[in-house]
Amino acid sequence: MNTRERTEIAAEVPEELLALWKQWIETLGMVDVIHPATMGLVMMKAEESVAKEVFHVGEILTTDATVTVDGVLGYGIVMGNHPDEAYTLALLDAIYHASDLKWTNTKEQIDVELMYQGEKQRQQRQQEYKFIQRTMVDFEVMDAD
Amino acid sequence: MAYVAVRGGQQAIKEAEKLLHYYRLKDGEQPITINQIRTQMRLAVDKAMSEGSLYDPDLAALALKQAEGDAIEASFLLRAFRSTLPRQAYTDAIDTSKMEIVRRISATFKEVPGGQYLGPTRDYTKRLLRMELMEETEAEAKATISEFLENLNLNAEEVESGQVPTFPRVINLLKEEGLIHVPTQGERNTDGSVDDITRDALSFPTSRAVRLQAMTRGETGALLAFAYSSVRGYGDVHPTIGELRVGYVPVYMPHPIYPEETIALGRILVTEAEIVVRQQDENVSGAAQFAVGYGLCFGHNEDKAISMGILDQTMVAENPASPAQDEEFVLYHIDGIESSGFISHFKLPHYVDFQAELQRVRSINRKEENEV
Asked: Using one digit for the tens of pLDDT, what is the confidence trace for A8-45?
């Protein structure tokens, strides 16, 4: 699971789970906070669909944090004002970039949970889509020559 | 007449602010919660986020609560809040072809690849007040949800195994036939930079990136009025909605520490409109073509995205003949915060200005009386 896949799922996992992971990592590693979790903005860009012209849509409120765990840098960012979540994602980022074998077991456990959470999120979206699917239009031709 | 500086009113201002807070709560009702506003006033929340140019449903709900439902005031509060925070990063451009749709319709073709989905819409319902909502109880709300879910009769296997589809763009059908005008390099910014109206003031003529950015944070009513004027006769655009989509798109940004990697921030709700209009001029090879106007905004706001798409095309006119074709006229008047701020300033004392006007009028009248 690469950073993109991991963060796609982690952005929507329950707070309690992140709190548990935070506890695991803080127990096993030496954490230094480089940049405490702080609110900020990320400017969102979009691309117009024909000429592929890129433009700025507006800013997203985010909270981001930078830490080191055993000297390895990690960065976490979430949408909204959620300092604990941003901090925990930074911890996760650090251990996933660490090569120390002591993290192997933790990463494996988190990977398993992330896969499970990813599947739950997929099912949730599939259910939402099923609601929408009920509104699919079935056109009937009323008069044809 | 000399200017006279005056002081006063500070106590009255303080008391007015206290009275404002009192008026919001004076009827002794249970204070409305942020969750209630966010979930049951979702379209107002989306409008505030879009016009405030800040995506955060919680803060938008708070702004609406504080503004007692005044959408422009709420977007002003959001814009002001946003100005206190640093910009940490830029996202990659969102890919709306990956949108998980809530709604998708086309007015150009009946049979579009992937189908048309009405989604949660009032477009085809009677605009009658539902009197039963006057006394809606929590139990009734729960019953409505249960009934909806029971009637769906969802197949657990389908939910467990299926994949949420993504949809090709409807305008691709026209593109494949060579019927869509694709701007050449000379017609668009090619130096890789993206203009930003939050960094540089508007100057004319503008780039398309500037026009789109100004419109996406513009006030819905203003955009709607200008777009309406252009299709009613003060312009020459005959739009057809190629595709209107509402849905969730994933947002990604480069990792600030490990730049070869990408971070996902989550998903946001956007509305996108592609407006097909007939090109007035034939292209180099003499073929008739269509152009596509583009609209995209935060949240679910169809009028805004469609109006933006229409105005995106009206403003390409080389010799503007109507207000909606004049980019300076449109872009200087669509920002709700600027326009309401300017109109509001008329409520401030203009005693000196008016005294000058008054003296001038009196002096003209005296002169006329003397001449008679």
From this structure: 999 999 999 999 999 999 999 999 999 999 999 999 99
Taking 3-state DSSP, the helix, strand and coil percentages for chain B, each rounded to the nearest 5, stand at 45, 15, 40
CB B224 within 8 A of CB B307: yes
Domain ranges of chain A: 3-131
**Vertex B167, ends B311 and B316: CA angle to 5°?**
15
Q: Do the Cβ atoms of A55 and B213 come within 8 Å?
A: yes
Q: How far apart are CA B298 and CA B312, in angstroms?
A: 17
Cβ-defined contact of A53 to B208 (cutoff 8 Å): yes
The pLDDT value given to residue A63 = 98
Contacts for B96 with CB less than 8 Å, ≥ 6 apart: A46, A49, B245, B249, B270, B272, B296
Core vs surface per residue B212-244: b (16+ CB within 10 A) or e: bbbbbbbbbbbbbbbbebbbeeebbbebebbbb
ipTM of model: 0.96
Q: Judged by CB atoms within 8 Å, which residues 4-63 of A form the interface with B? A: 4, 7-8, 11-12, 39-51, 53-62
CB of A129 within 8 Å of any CB in chain B?
A: yes
Does A42 contact B160 at a Cβ distance shorter than 8 Å?
Answer: no
Which 8-state DSSP code applies to residue B319? S
Pair of tokens at residue B213: 């950015």
Give contacts of A58 with chain B, Cβ < 8 Å. Answer: 49-50, 53-55, 216-217, 298
